[in-house]
Amino acid sequence: MAGYGHGSVTGIDERTLGRIDLLLFDADYPSAADAVDDSWRVAVLAADPRVRADRDRARAHAVQAANARRDPSTRGVRDASSLHRALLAVALVLAVVAAGLVMPSRAGLGGSGLGLQQTMLPAGVAAMLALALLWWLEPLRAAGALWGSRLPAVLHLACAALWFLAAAVALLLRWGEIDAQQPLPVTTGLILLVTAGTLALALWHRARRADRSGRQSGIARVTGGLTDARDGVAVFFALDEWWRVAGPAAMATGEARARRVRIEALARLRLAGVISVVDEQFAALDPPPVRWRERRR
């Protein structure tokens, strides 16, 4: 979205702007009319994060119910929460720390300044912990539940490259620092680091297929996780029922804020070139929908 990074046109807070950007970034609107039609729903979801979380739960429940009708033994559908996003941040920090512990300080890569004898094993453990978190979070990332397509599969490749670089530095440039009488901690750490890099490459290879499926954005995100695509109709009907209650309720408790958020959404759509200035001006005068339902296009 070209509107991403631009300031508010109404003076609304940055967190709300971030939620708007997140919703619009992967919307993939086929036309200006579709974007305008969706702007009220975007406004309601961005105005209150609790409403968006409730909608995500409704979507996951509808997908799980559809899958259960096909196969009662099917696994539950996971959806992302703030905890999952926090764990992703922890994984990325651990990935950088793992490499930083091995890099020499003079390399300008945030090296620890400690000897390899002390840092190699913690580096390997940090890399494996980061990999475990990334592997566990991959189904959510692949489904676009974390941050849509803003988290591409190349993230795993970057981690692998970072760990292989650190392993190469340890082996080729710093191996003389180890205590020949106590090599086990260093060799164990090196093995863990290389293993983490190798598994991260395997994860990247699998994650690329998910990225190419297109399930992380647009309408495909709604039905992501279905075992049978024919059940998509049931998912949309379930979300229609959710909107039938949630839409009017949001207007009853916070219509003024929703209108303000919608103005921000329309401005960002115009900055992105999705709608024109005329579209924005006319849409700003539109009343809330009489019939609330899930977006179909």
List the helices and strands and how they pair.
Layout lengths: L13 H12 L6 H16 L1 H22 L11 H19 L15 H27 L11 H19 L11 H29 L19 H40 L5 H7 L14
Structure description:
This protein is mostly helical. It is 64% helix and 0% strand. The chain has nine helices and no strands.
Unreliable segments (pLDDT under 50, ≥5 consecutive)?
none
How many distinct helices? 9
Instruction: Output the radius of gyration.
Output: 23 Å
Helix content: 55-70%
Q: Provide mean pLDDT, rounded.
A: 89
Largest sheet: none
What percentage of amino acids are in beta strands?
A: under 5%
Number of strands: 0
Characterize the overall form. elongated
* SSE sequence, one letter per element: HHHHHHHHH
Briefly note the structural class of the backbone. mainly alpha
- For the termini, the CA-CA separation is 18 Å
Summarize this structure briefly.
This protein has helices at 14-25, 32-47, 49-70, 82-100, 116-142, 154-172, 184-212, 232-271, 277-283. The protein has 297 residues and is an all-alpha fold. The radius of gyration is 23 Å and the shape is elongated.
